[in-house]
Amino acid sequence: MDSILVKGGAELRGEIPIAGAKNACLALMPATLLSDEPLTLTNAPRLSDIRTMTQLLQSLGAEVSALQDGRVLALSSHDLTSHVADYDIVRKMRASILVLGPLVARYGHAVVSLPGGCAIGARPVDLHLKGLEALGAELDLREGYVHAKAPGGLKGAVVDFPFVSVGATENVLMAAVLARGTTVLKNAAREPEIVDLAACLSKMGARIDGAGTGTITIEGVDRLTGATHPVVTDRIELGTYMIAPAVAGGEVECIGGRLDLVSAFAERLDAAGVSVEETPRGLKVARRNGRIRAVDVETAPFPGFPTDLQAQMMALLCTADGTSVLEERIFENRFMHAPELQRMGAKIAVHGGTATVTGVERLKGAPVMATDLRASVSLILAGLAAEGETVVNRVYHLDRGYERVEEKLGACGASIERISG
Ligand code: UD1
Predict the structure, then answer these.
(1) Dist. CA 165 → ligand 1 center (Å)
(2) Residue 72: which residues within 8 A CB-CB, separation 6 or more?
(3) Which single residue of 32, 201, 269, 386 could bond 8 by disulfide (Cβ 3.0 to 4.6 Å)?
(4) Atom 29 in ligand 1: residue holding the nearest Cα
């Protein structure tokens, strides 16, 4: 299993290209199941999660080709051969559940394994299932699989989510575009990935209004066409690389970065003493003089501070001047990086969903273990500023969501290498 070796202390200077969003791409790919015409996604990220979704769609009989070195995905669901999403693939990645809505909407039946995914607390899919039931799908849970049927087709309905779920909004949105009549999604997720999915579906002929707000209205259509769509910038990769010069010092321009994708996060960085400036090519980020200041952080659905940047922010605050309080409001048990950061000398106390971080002058390098995707990159960030060597083990989590992390940081002067094992 590969690990990443980081030698701390080097300031970062240079530019980092930001890829297309993993989470947007994972929702856009299953949209191919809604049409028998080709869907082309450009600006796709090259990540193991994308390969897992490719395998899943191929197992259903869809054609998926990675062109231009994986930057372009050509998808076609002209001749599906199966409507069964098998446990062996679904268990690798939670987003696999996103094939359920499109399959039932277009074919009237589907069998999809219940997913596994990141170990960040109980992550049920009840909202996905309730939303599809509201549209008339008949669901039966047997032996770890959801058996879904809609013999007469789906019908538009009002779906009022009890709390915001990105995946459930995506799944039900995809189902609703082919349902008969009007669907209204209330308390819908407002994440940029939802806006991107709605934009792509609209190019395919769907009639969607209100994406990016809490209420999305969909008028069902009989069929969708093909489309070509560029995947939106990855705001989580962007935020991660914005933290790098904040932790290590220096100045980095994140190419393709957009402030509107990370405004709540950028505001917290600014409060911590990090300057963020819009440039014609993206965002330039630099640590102002002096030590990082402690700031409080509370995760929330978009446009709030993203849970997927909480671990990286914690890595930054470990060396801040003062005490920071981080409240995790989206997932239970999402502080697994805290004990690893403590191994590097961080002072963190975790009580339930609250972590209190008392800044220390300097972290010390140590061997640490990546426990999930965002946790693993937070350990790399911490290593950039730590004294000595940090070895991050189990980096397969990292490869699910970050392409060429060692090359991107290395190009800015970080001392970082992958050790194959
Ligand atoms: C997506 C992102 C993930 C991000 C999360 C929150 C993808 C592939 N993943 O995950 O990176 O951390 O949004 O921004 O896009 N919940 C239920 N029942 C459900 C669905 C969700 O209880 O049916 C709960 C979850 O356990 C969690 C909360 O709702 O506590 C929000 O989860 P959700 O927004 O659905 O996250 P995902 O779509 O899985």
Answers:
(1) 5
(2) 40, 41, 42, 44, 66
(3) 386
(4) 165
Segment 134-154, tens digit of pLDDT: 999 999 998 889 999 999 999
Nearest CA to ligand 1 atom 39: 167
pTM of the shown model:
0.97
CA distances from 170 to 132, 269, 329 (A): 11, 30, 21
- Give, using CA atoms, the residue closest to atom 15 of ligand 1: 23
Q: Please tell me the predicted confidence (pLDDT) of residue 354.
A: 98
Atom of ligand 1 nearest to the CA of 130: 23
Q: Residue written as tokens 């809505």?
A: 101
The pLDDT-based confidence of 234 (bands split at 50, 70, 90) is very high
HEC profile for 200-238? HHHHCCCEEECECECEEEEECCCCCCCEEEECCECHHHH
Question: Would the CB of 167 count as within 6 Å of ligand 1?
Answer: yes
In this structure, what token pair is assigned to residue 206? 């769907």
Task: For ligand 1, pick from 165, 174, 195 the residue to mutate: most ligand atoms within 8 Å of CB.
Answer: 165
Distance CA 209, CA 407 (A): 40
SS (H, E, C) 359-391: CCCCCECCEEECCCHHHHHHHHHHHHHCECEEE
How far away, in angstroms, is 330 Cα from ligand 1 center? 8
Active-site residue among 118, 200, 254, 412? Answer: 118
What is the Cα–Cα distance from 271 to 413, expressed in whole angstroms?
Answer: 26
Residue 413 in this model has a pLDDT that exceeds 50: yes
325-356 in b/e form (b: 16+ CB < 10 A) is ebebbbbeebbbbbebbbbbbbebebeebebe
